[in-house]
Amino acid sequence: MVKAKKAAGKGGAAERQSKRTGAATGALPGVTRPAPQPPSAKKGPGKKVVKKQVEEKEEEEVQRCQQPLLLDLGTQKQRWVNFAKEQSLSTEEAAKLLLEYFEYKGLVKHSGGCHCGAVRFEVWASSDLHVFDCNCSICVKKQNRHFIVPSSRFKLLKGADNLTTYKFNTKKAQHTFCKTCGVQSFYTPRSNPDGYGIAPHCLDEGTVRSVHVEQINGKEWEKAMKEHKTIRSMSQS
What we know:
Layout: H1 2-25, H2 47-66, H3 77-87, H4 91-103, E1 108-113, E2 120-125, E3 128-134, H5 137-142, E4 147-150, E5 154-158, E6 163-166, E7 175-178, E8 186-187, E9 195-198, E10 210-216, H6 221-227
Parallel strand pairs: 3-10
Antiparallel strand pairs: 1-2, 2-5, 4-9, 6-7, 8-9
Helix pairs in contact: 2-3
Family: Belongs to the Gfa family.
Keywords: Metal-binding, Zinc
Region (Disordered): 1-55
């Protein structure tokens, strides 16, 4: 009996202590307060992180502007980078600008095509054209006078699906012409398979200043190519 009273006394003391603690902390009796949670780990990036991100972005921008700089611009390199950044040029636009002002310096952009208009192209070449007049069998029959350019300076604007090609003998020359009107405005010559032969009479008016015609003895093609000093190099950039 005495032990039971002592236990009850202890229980009452514990209850009174709990009430006093609850009153001190503002908690209601019998209500369990949730345990305090640690501060959230999600924080905005610190100053150092932000600074690093900005620096990385600036570096990416510089790299983007420098991508088209495959040519050695020397002291002009930094001026080009600054200009590209100011103008927000893409790599493609920058490359085009470089081609027009460096590789195509001294050249003009000619445009031309077939008779019906299904085939159209543009080509960068001198305004003073060096035209070859070959006397081989096919060139005589179709009056194939042409000047030679590297393939990088020729761009077919439309009509790829309207072209067909005639090949014979070695099949190295590709005589391409329009399916509709039959006009050959350009082709791939046997002498320059890495370039194009462009028909000067298929160019639009206004960009040709003069035409110099050179005769080629295509009847003795191998001999003519061996003796000619510059024709092979005309299709090289």
